[in-house]
Design brief:
9-stranded parallel beta sheet, 12 helices, single chain, binds ligand LLP, 426 residues, 9-stranded mixed beta sheet, 28% helix, alpha/beta
Length: 426
């Protein structure tokens, strides 16, 4: 998927040289082979898929339509978190019965859109439940729902991406959950059919998943007493990836996740009257390592530190600035040179925090070298912005020796595309 030939980084059989000459920089480049390999790892790990196990790709991680279509064509459903993601998932070819409409703050319009699209909902509050019920009645439909429960588990990840701490904004508190199912069971327009939780992201220890699943089964047994027939138990996403390039042992694989989760699931189901499916919502572990961000060096500057100033910053890859996330960085045109100097890679944004990598030992860097930032496929482009009047860059898909533009770069016109000037300011 990514290799070195004649000193250049290659994406499958295409050199970064060719990519940069064809499309310029900055540039997001995705390897289809890497994507297929991650998909295969999940399918292989959860052999019952599709069947007793359903994989719902978390569209928030990367919503490029070409990427969505590759994933949906492998039988995946989708986790969506907004009307916009629902729109993208439908266009991306996901089957609506397996598009779960998540979200802690859905607007009335989004709820109506979800009802009209006939997708199941993960409901995050009592207010949402009532709106959903009213909307379903008006639309003359019946909506399958789960509640998102907060299982109060520390996923041992960065605090900004831990989602099941007691103080989290997500989910129904543990102590209210059974009452909420009871309310829903009595309401017209909604059919409680599932339980949903998601404990966090970039999780590298499987035990919190197991603990969450066990806790969810405690709820399952209690709500069956009310009369709820469960069709699915959704344990969310969150499996971490090896950002630091530490090797196979450092991060659990889908196979290891399945090995630990499936027995707990089977055991749990045997204690129920109903026979629910297990749903999972992987995002990062499907797309994270499939994509690099290519960025050109505009200047090398010796200051109190050795700065490499590149043409991509947190406008295109927010993770380092937002979570102090580590992404591997290489000089794509000097892959055969020895690392000899320590550099800090700085983006072009007018903020001191616009640093992509600190104190990285690299071969001697010069103006116009091409830097590649790895593992940028998840929460990369989707979190980009036009801050500082910077246009978003293009995205390319590589398949063997072919490459395809899957998103055009924006132009300056896109900076003003939706702006209006009142007449008196013209
Ligand atoms: N399901 C739900 C309900 C979620 O909220 C998320 C992620 C996922 C599934 C997928 O999780 P994954 O398998 O990708 O870990 N921007 C942050 C990550 C935010 C994750 C938000 N929720 C980052 O760049 O690390």
């Amino acid at each position: 998927m990514f290799s070195v030939r004649n000193g250049w980084l290659f994406v499958e059989d295409v050199s970064v040289k060719e990519l940069v000459e064809s499309y310029g920089t900055p540039l997001y480049v995705t390897s289809r082979a890497a994507l297929e390999s991650n998909i295969e790892a999940y399918k292989e790990a959860f052999k019952d898929f599709p069947g007793k196990v359903r994989l719902l790709y978390a569209v928030k991680a990367n919503n490029n339509l070409s990427i969505l279509r590759i994933i949906s064509s492998n039988g995946f459903g989708a986790d969506v978190f907004s009307g916009g993601e629902l729109y993208l998932a439908l266009l991306g070819g996901f089957p609506r019965e397996y598009i779960l409409f998540n979200g802690n703050s859905k607007s009335d319009d989004e709820i109506r859109m979800g009802v009209r699209s006939a997708v199941p909902f993960s409901v995050d509050s009592i207010d949402e439940l009532y709106t959903l019920s009213e909307t379903a009645i008006l639309e003359d439909s019946e909506v399958r729902i789960a509640f998102r429960v907060n299982p109060e588990i520390d996923a041992k990840t960065h605090p900004k991406i831990a989602t099941a701490l007691r103080t989290s904004k997500f989910g129904i508190p543990w102590e209210h959950i059974v009452d909420v199912y009871r309310t829903a069971y009595e309401l017209p327009g909604v059919e409680p059919r599932g339980i949903h939780c998601h404990i966090g992201s970039q999780i590298t220890d499987i035990s919190p998943f197991v603990e969450a699943l066990q806790k969810v089964f405690q709820i399952a047994r209690q709500i069956e007493e009310i009369g709820v027939e469960l069709e699915f138990i959704d344990i969310g996403g969150g499996l971490g990836i090896d950002y630091e390039g530490k090797g196979a042992e450092s991060t659990p694989t889908p196979a290891q996740l399945a090995e630990k989760l499936l027995p707990v699931f089977e055991d749990g189901v045997s204690s129920l009257k109903s026979d629910p499916e297990l749903w999972l919502e992987p995002g990062r572990s499907i797309v994270g390592n499939t994509t690099i961000l290519l960025t050109k060096v505009n200047a090398v500057k010796k200051s109190y530190r050795n700065f490499v100033a590149v043409d991509a910053g947190f406008n295109l890859l927010l993770r380092p600035a937002m979570y102090s996330a580590y992404h591997r960085i290489v000089v794509a045109n000097k892959m055969d040179r020895e690392a000899e100097e320590v550099y800090t890679i700085a983006g072009p944004i007018c903020e001191s925090g616009d640093i992509l990598g600190e104190d990285r030992k690299l071969p001697k860097v010069e103006k116009r070298d091409v830097i590649a930032i790895f593992d940028a496929g998840a929460y990369g482009f989707v979190m980009s912005s036009q801050y500082n009047g910077r246009t978003r860059c293009a995205e390319v898909l590589v398949e063997g020796s072919h490459h395809y533009l899957i998103r055009e770069a924006e132009s300056y016109g896109d900076l003003i595309a939706k702006q209006k000037i009142p007449e008196h300011l013209l």
